[in-house]
Amino acid sequence: MTEIPPTIADAAAALRSGELTSVALTTACLEAADALDAQIGCYIERFDETALAAAAEADRALAAGDDLGPLQGIPLGIKDIIATDEGPTTAQSLILDPRWGDQGDAPVVARLRAAGGVITGKTTTMEFACGMTDPEKPFPIPRNPWNLDRWPGGSSSGTGNGIAAGLFLGGLGTDTGGSIRAPSAYCGISGIKATFGRVPKSGCVPLGYSLDHIGPMARSARDCALMLDVLAGYDASDPYAADVPVADYSSGLDGDLSGLTLGVDRVHTVDRAEDPAVVAAFDAVLAELEAAGATVEEISLPYYDELGATTMATAFAEAFAYHRNDLASRWSDYGRSTRKFIARGALISAADFVQAQRVRTIALAAMTEAFAPYDAVITPTALAGAPPALGIELDDILGSICTPVWNAVGFPALSVPMGFASDGLPLSLQVIAAPFGEAVTFKVGDALQRRTDWHLRVPPIAAPLAA
Amino acid sequence: MTAPDPAELVPMLLSAAGVTPPADEVAQIVAAYPAMRAGVDALYAVPDLADVAPVLSFSPVPA
Question: CB atoms < 10 A from the CB of A52, how many?
């Protein structure tokens, strides 16, 4: 049986040394899905035939010396709110018109494919990227491979649990309030919400127009950088896309943080954790980053709680504008949690929405000033391990995640594993930088991962399949 | 001024938007409303906003 390398970087090296072929790697990943998907609920649709064809083409090209870069021949999963050529896009909902996906590859998928990526299928999401799992609807229930009774996080649930369980090596998630970073945290992998507009989001079902981001998820920060090297850049099809030069994110990852100053806001984040293991893991990470050369200083982030409320008010209003007609005519076709969540947009007045955008203006200026002395700011991603898979509402966890603030201001935020909670579930560090500062988040995340192996830990149910 | 009763206000706002959930789900939305409203109302207490424009953008040239 072919062993699946832990990271994209490892697999890319093995593909070029002749130790591995993309067909063998892709076959191993599909076999892992055969073994585990019924338990973890990762895929909505698998593309075995086209994936193996793409893998064969990658092998042929590499053998001919046509090297497209490190994603060539790498199995990747795509969250099922992003359009692909192969199959329908459901948004894990009975509501979305199946013809929506007829547009073909979203720009981000086209970029992965042009880089030789092997698209293995569409992964589970919370319905329309919000709400919680509804067992009454005809879709898989995503579960956490570290504990099947727990949630893998959302809304990029299947991309998160699929990477953690070895069903593919990387994938796409989307993030409106934490939907890349929360599943990365709960599943013990890495993921980044880049600067708003850095990655084009056309071809993706919207949730919050001014908050949505598409981004990479993978085991390591380096792998996320390799993916962002391909994903980042302007595309005219997205009116929010930023026409800003793209950095080389994967270069300069040398583990040396000398000269970097990191801000730590404990008051708004880690001091609110109830599990002492979160505090201990966070402090251990600080020590590692200092040992890597960084200077760590206390910081108080401005408008922290107001920005959290701003993200939610904006998301409710923007989502309700998109869904109002369907909520009015097809209420019961939505999942229970989703429909109750989005309907709150009816309770946000137009003035409330505008006021939230005024707060974004002043808070963005204050946050930019607060970040000026620092290369990055670090917080936990979440203040606890994964909650139960079923029987909870989004409100139950909003107070324990440290992610929505960064959607309101659009700053890049990378999540990387930082240990385990008292209940044995993964914990996560969040590294935030000023706009278009993704490179420094990767530098910090990679330096931590050179000194720890949290990102390489494999859930017990997937251990027999891992290298 | 007395704050409106969420049990009356929420169904009215939902109905005005054309959304009519069953009673048990209305009750759950009502229960969540005070916390949401408090968060939104706190945005009006942010100081120094008098001359601040919202982060909305508009161009008369179609994208």
Answer: 17
Closest CA to A347 of A394, A395, A313: A313
Continuous segment of H or E residues that includes residue B51:
none
Which chain A residues have any C-beta within 8 angstroms of a chain B C-beta?
A: 210, 236, 239, 303, 305-306, 308-310, 312-313, 316, 320, 324-325, 327-328, 331, 336, 339-340, 343-344, 346-348, 352, 354-362, 364, 395
**Dihedral sign (CA A96, A101, A106, A112):** positive
Distance CA B33, CA A322 (A): 21
Interface subset of B 2-61, CB within 8 angstroms of A: 10, 13-14, 16-21, 25, 28-29, 32-33, 35-37, 39-40, 42-44, 46, 48-49, 52-56
Contact residues on chain B for A359, CB-CB shorter than 8 A: 43, 46, 49
Q: Is A92 helix (H, G, I), strand (E, B) or coil?
A: coil
| Number of helices (H), then strands (E), in chain A | 14, 11
Tell me, rounded to whole angstroms, the distance of Cα A233 from its chain centroid: 18
A155 flagged as catalytic: yes
Asked if residues A174 and A129 have their Cβ atoms less than 8 Å apart, the reply is yes
A251 labelled catalytic: no
What are A119's strand-pairing partners? Answer: A76
Q: Is the ipTM of this complex over 0.90?
A: yes
Do A340 and B28 meet the contact criterion of CB atoms below 8 Å apart?
yes
Peptide bond into A258 cis (omega under 30): no
Q: pLDDT means per 10 residues in chain A (467 residues)?
A: 93 98 98 98 98 98 98 98 94 94 96 98 97 93 98 97 98 98 98 98 97 98 98 97 96 97 97 95 98 98 97 98 98 97 98 98 97 98 96 90 98 98 94 98 98 97 80
Tokens of A52: 């193996």
Say if strands A213-218 and A118-123 run parallel, antiparallel, or are unpaired: unpaired
Q: Which residues of B touch A331 (CB under 8 A)?
A: 19-21
Residues of B in contact with A327 (CB under 8 A): 18-19
Does pTM top 0.90 for this prediction? yes
Q: What is the DSSP string of A103-131?
A: G---HHHHHHHHTT-EEEEEE--SGGG-S
A45 has which bridge partners?
A122
- Helices A48-63 and A8-17 pack at an angle, to 10 degrees, of 50
